[in-house]
Structure formats: C-alpha cells, structure tokens
Specification:
Layout: E1 4-10, H1 14-22, H2 31-34, H3 38-47, E2 51-56, E3 71-74, E4 78-81, E5 94-95, H4 98-110, E6 116-118, E7 122-123, H5 125-134, E8 143-149, H6 159-174, E9 182-187, H7 204-216, H8 226-233, H9 241-250, E10 255-265, E11 268-276
Helix pairs in contact: 1-5, 4-6, 6-9
Bound molecules: 3,4-dihydroxybenzoic acid and fe (iii) ion.
Length: about 280
C-alpha cells in the first residue's frame, strides 16, 4: 500500500515565478507571501515524499477552448513547462510516474469517472509555482502525476463532483502497490477575479471560512453550486476546487500542520495549507 502522507494546498499566480526568478522574495511586497514557505519546506524535509499527485487547472497552455476535458490525468514520463505568455522563465522538466498515472486512470474509470488520459502534457504555472516554492533549487524532489480539473470553460464540474473525484484519487493512491510516499497538492484559488465588472474581487471572509472548513468540516464547500462559488470566490476563485479535491483525497482524520493567508498577490488571495493524513494512512 502506497502511503498517502499528506496534502499541500496553495494559490498560484504567474508573478510568483517571476519574483523567484528575479530574487524578489525579501522585498516588502513579497516578504509576507514567501515567509509562509520555510515551514512548508521543513515539513517536506521531515516527510520526504517521493511522488506528488497534483490537482491543478490548466490555463490554456495544454488544453484550449476547442478541446476542454473536464478531468484529465497525465501519464507522461516527463512534463515540460513552456511559454505561457506571462514572461515567466521556464523551469526544468518534471519527471512523471507513468505506472502510477495509469493505475489512477484505471481505478478512476472503473469508478465511472470519464478521464482524458494524456501521454503528452505541457504544464503551466499551476504546476511550476508550488513545485518551485517546495524546491527553490529546481532539483525537484518528487515525481509528479498531474490531475487537471477544468475551471476555464463552462460548464465546470461541481464542488460535489470534485470532492468525489478527490476521494476516488485517494482510494486509488492507497491501492497502489508501491512503497512510494505520496503527497497530494491542490494548486489554485483562493478568491480572485481577473476580468469583467468585478475584476480585482477578493472575499477574505469566504476564503477564511473555506480554508477553516477543510480542517474541521471538509465537505462544507460541496453545498455550493458553481454559480454560487463564482459569486463568493470570483470567476477564477473557483480554482479552490483543487484544494477541495486534494482534501478529499487525504481522507478523514487529517491534521493541519501549517497555514497562511495573505492578500493580495497580484489580483489573488494567496493561501497555503499543509495537512498530515491520519496516521493509519501514512
Ligand atoms: C493571476 C492568478 C491566477 O490564478 C492565474 O492563473 C493568473 C493570474 C493573478 O492574480 O495575476
Ligand atoms: Fe489560475
């Protein structure tokens, strides 16, 4: 049984990649954001995961509006970053874990999730941001399995469906025969809206309630439909579905180890939440 050791949920913003490339971590604007990460790296150093299963949303680099899977899983030996148009320097490729990817795909399809399997996949800032923050040297300490959830083109999967997906991914990880230690990552959110009349919208009260719910009442957000989530978190804030799926994968009895919330980074409420799985899961 592969141990699922914990979860790491984080916002992503292209400007984070640029700030790291320019060494701006100590500047007044960036310090409150970056100072949340040494404890995360301490936790990673203690737990030493081998693989990260990353719930994330692509932003038009790998999938575009003409072909938009609701749920897609990477099964590539290697994942490359490419120019996304934000002026972020590209980072070295990430090693995949095709055998675990195919195990997840098989288990999820057997559980009646209709998954798009991707033997080639470009990854954007939603993957590079958390991995760079975890491993600033860019010597990636984990192989990755990307799990992509559409939050770009309507109709989006519901919070309830993303919770169910996350639970199924958690079951699939636990039924993998290998000894690898697996961490699940949720990359996206928190509240933000990049366009339209409410551009710049941030909802601190909702964010804090949502993050709190992941610790004490993790299915809380499944009460909201997609339009309610857009209303509360913003058109791009629906990316918080990644946190929900990651939390669902972790299973019951998880414990918070570290959390931070800071507004804003670019147009986004930036949060991080680290949780350990219940002991029997580890
Ligand atoms: C920003 C946030 C995002 O989630 C994203 O994908 C792109 C930009 C921003 O706040 O600038
Ligand atoms: Fe985003």
């Amino acid at each position: 049984m592969a141990p699922l050791i914990g979860s790491l949920c984080s916002s992503h913003v292209p400007a984070i990649g640029r700030a790291m490339a320019k060494g701006l971590q100590g500047e007044d604007y960036w310090r409150p954001f970056f100072q949340a990460w040494p404890p995360v790296r301490q936790w990673l150093g203690d737990r030493q995961p081998d693989v990260a299963v990353v719930f994330y949303n692509d932003h038009g680099l790998n999938f575009f509006l003409d072909k938009m899977p609701t749920f897609a899983i990477g099964a590539a030996p290697e994942y490359h970053h490419a120019d996304e148009g934000w002026g972020i320097p590209q980072v070295p490729p990430f090693q995949g874990h095709p055998a675990l990817s195919w195990h997840l795909i098989e288990q999820l399809v057997a559980e009646e999730f209709d998954i798009t399997s991707c033997q080639e996949m470009l990854v954007d800032h939603a993957i590079t941001n958390p991995l760079q923050l975890m491993y600033p040297s860019q010597h990636w300490g984990v192989r990755i399995v990307p799990v992509c959830i559409n939050t770009v083109q309507f109709p989006l999967p519901s919070a309830r469906r993303c919770w169910a997906l996350g639970e199924a991914v958690g079951r699939a990880i636990r039924s993998w025969g290998g000894a690898e230690k697996v961490v699940v990552i949720g990359s996206g959110g928190l509240s933000h809206q990049l366009d339209g009349k409410r551009a710049g919208f941030i909802n601190r009260d909702f964010d804090l309630a949502f993050v709190e719910s992941l610790v004490h009442d993790p299915q809380w957000a499944t009460q909201f439909n997609t339009l309610q989530l857009v209303e509360k978190a913003g058109t791009q804030g629906v990316e918080l579905l990644m946190w929900l799926a990651a939390r669902a994968a972790l299973g019951p009895g998880a414990t918070q180890r570290h959390g931070s919330y800071h507004v804003p980074i670019s147009n986004t409420a930036a949060g991080v939440l680290v949780m350990d799985a219940a002991l029997e899961g580890r």
